[in-house]
Fold:
Amino acid sequence: MRVIAVRAVVVVALAGAAGCGGGSGSPSSPGPAGPITINIVGERGASSFSPNPAQAAGEMVVFRNTDTVVHRVRLNDLSLDTGDIAPGATSTAVRMPVAGTNYHCMLHTSMIGAVAATGSAPPRCTGDYC
Ligand SMILES: [Cu+2]
Structure:
């Protein structure tokens, strides 16, 4: 008698949910120690942010305004809003969705950017800010 056990293991990518607060800085852990910085360059369409797309899905990100006017980053699904970021200032760190995301500047809606998982394309942009 032959029994074939097929076990479907669904791996749900919730690794970030466990949280890793309070780490004392293990030197063996790979990856960046702090949040990933996305620079706000100016009103240049899809070139308004650098890098774009950023390989930062599921990661903590800060937006640094290198332009001379105020910008305000908001995810296209409206789930996150940095508030105003003054020229030269950096936003507080915010966690990007695990699946990646598309975002724009709330004050200059032609400024669009995306976040993707490493080695993947960002999610398809839909809606008013693409
Ligand atoms: Cu702007």
